C-alpha cells in the first residue's frame, strides 16, 4: 500500500513537472498577439493590431511585442493614434498579484503617437466608445482629477527613434522627435531621473529632469515636484515647479529662466530658422498652465537693447470655431523699436523702422495689449513715459490709450484701425500739450523764430489704403488747431511786421507778452495750409497765412499787423517769408501775386471738425480781427 502511494505520488510529481515544463515550453513559444489584440480592442474601444507577442515566464516575466497599431478615432488625420516597432518589458511576477505593477528593462523602439482634436474638438486620447466622445463631458471636479494610483513603477525605460505629435483642432501640428529618452528610478520611493535627446521642429533639444518618486506621482493631483534643464543650441531654459497632472502637462506652476545670446533656436523652434539677425534674450518669471489657459507672469529680463521690468502674458485657447485670446501687459525700462523691428522683420530694405497697421478680418489669436515704457526709440525720435492700450476685434484694432512725452511735451492719442484686406483705414485723435515752440522748431528743421512759449495742439487725422505707420504718416489727411495762451515774442518782430517808422531811428529791444496765438492747419498727404494764424500782443495783432509742403520742406508765409492794433507810427505793410524751412527768403507780400493772394486769406477761419471747435473757441484769438 505504501509502495503504491509513493508510486502514485511520484507519478503525480512527474506529471506536474511534465505539465509545468510543457506549459513553460508552450508559453515561451506561443504567440499571444491575436489574443492580446482582441482583449485590448475590447477594453480600449479601438481596433488594436499586434504583429507578434511573446511571453517568457519567470520571477520577472519578459514580454516582447512587435508591430503595435492602435486605431485613431473616426475623423482623425491618420489611421492610428499609436504605433510601435518593438516593445520589450520585464514585469515582476509578484507585482501582478498585489500591484502597482513593477517594471524594468523597458525598451520601446520606433514609437509614434498622434494626439489630436478633430475639427469638432473631439480628443482622440480618451479611450471610450466614440459616441461617448462626441457627447459633452459633464463638468465635475471629481471627473477632471487625474487618477494615477495604479501607475506602474519604472526602474529603467528607454525610448528610441520615436516621435509624439500634438495636432490642434485648427490643424496646427507640433511634433517632438525622440532620438533617445531614458527614465531611471532605484525604487518607487526614490526620485525619478529623466534624460531626453531629440528635437522640435527639426531643432535639436536636450533635457535633463529630476522628479519626485512614483509613490508621489500616484498621489496626484497633489502637486508633483519637478525640475528641468533644457538646452537647444545657445538656448538654455530652466524650470523649477510642480504639476498636478504630469501626464497631460497640466496644473503646471513654477519658476522659469530662459537665456539665449542670438535667439536663433527660438526662431528655429517657431519654424523661422535663418530669417532673423541675432537677438539676445534673457527672461525669467512664473509660468503656469491649467486647462486651456497658459500664463506667464512677473516676467523680467532683456530683449536685445530693450529692458523688460515686469510683464504678464496670458493665452486662453479658443473653443470650437473661436480664436485663441492673448492678453499682454508689459512694462519696459528702455524700449528700442528700431532694433526689435529689424529683428522681427523679414524685409527691412529701406533701413527705416516701420510698424504694421493691419487689422485682419478673422484674427487668430485675438490680441489685447498694454505697454508702458520709461523711454522709447523709434527711428530718430526718442519718446518718454509711454502708455499704450489696444484691443483687437474682427477687422478692427481699437487704440484706446496712447500717451507719451516728446521734447518736454505731453502727447495723447486714440483711434481705430479698420481692415480692408491687406490695407487699412486709420482714424485718430491726437492732443499735444506743453510743447515748447523752440524745441519743436529745431526738431522740424525750421530756421530760428523770435517766439517763445508753450503750445497746445489738437489733431484729427485720417488715412486710407495704408499698411504701415510710416505710410499712414505720409498719406494722412489732417485738420489741426494750434493754440498758445502764454508766451512772448520779440518786440522788434511786432514792429517789423507793422513797419513801424520808429525803427528808422532806434532798435526795438526786449520782448512783449503774447496774449494769445491760434493757428488752424488743413493738410493732405504732407501738403497743407495754415489759416488763420493769429498772434495777439500788447504791441499789436499779427494775422498770417501759410502754405506748407512737408515733403519738400518748403513754406510760403505772409503775415501783417492789423492797423487798429498798432501805434500811430506803424505802416502795417505785409511781409512774405518763402523758401526752404532752414533758409527762407524775406520780401514784401504785395510785391507778388502769390503774396497778395495769401494776404487776402490771412484772416479767414477754416471750418473745424466738431471735435476741434470747442478747443479753438476757448482761445481769444479765435475771434476774427478787423
Could you list some keywords that capture this structure?
single chain, 626 residues, alpha+beta, 31-stranded mixed β-sheet, 13 helices, 17% helix, disordered N terminus
Total DSSP helices:
13
Mean pLDDT: 80
Q: Describe the biggest sheet?
A: 31 strands, mixed
What is the end-to-end distance?
A: 149 Å
The outline comes out as elongated
Helical content stands at 10-25%
Oligomer, anyone? single chain
Q: Which radius of gyration do the C-alpha atoms yield? A: 39 Å
User: Using DSSP, what is the number of strands?
Assistant: 31
Estimated share of beta-strand residues: over 45%
Q: Structural class from helices and strands?
A: alpha+beta
**Poorly predicted spans:** 1-21, 139-143, 498-507, 564-572
Short description:
It comes from Gluconobacter japonicus. By secondary structure, this protein is α+β, with helices and mostly antiparallel strands. The protein contains 13 helices and 31 strands.
Task: Explain the overall architecture.
By secondary structure, the protein is of the alpha+beta class. Among the domains are: 24-130 and 149-174, no CATH class; 407-626, no CATH class. The protein has a 31-stranded mixed β-sheet that branches. The N and C termini lie far apart (149 Å). Mean pLDDT is 80; it is low at 1-21, 139-143, 498-507 and 564-572.
Write the layout of secondary structure elements.
Elements: H1 2-29, H2 33-44, E1 48-56, E2 60-71, E3 80-92, H3 95-98, E4 102-109, E5 112-116, H4 130-134, H5 141-144, E6 153-154, E7 156-167, E8 173-184, E9 192-200, E10 203-211, H6 214-217, E11 224-232, E12 235-243, E13 252-260, H7 264-269, E14 281-290, E15 293-303, E16 306-316, E17 325-336, H8 337-344, E18 366-378, E19 381-393, E20 396-406, E21 409-420, E22 423-436, H9 437-444, E23 451-466, H10 469-475, E24 477-484, E25 487-490, H11 491-497, E26 511-524, E27 527-537, E28 540-549, E29 554-561, E30 575-580, E31 583-588, H12 593-600, H13 610-617
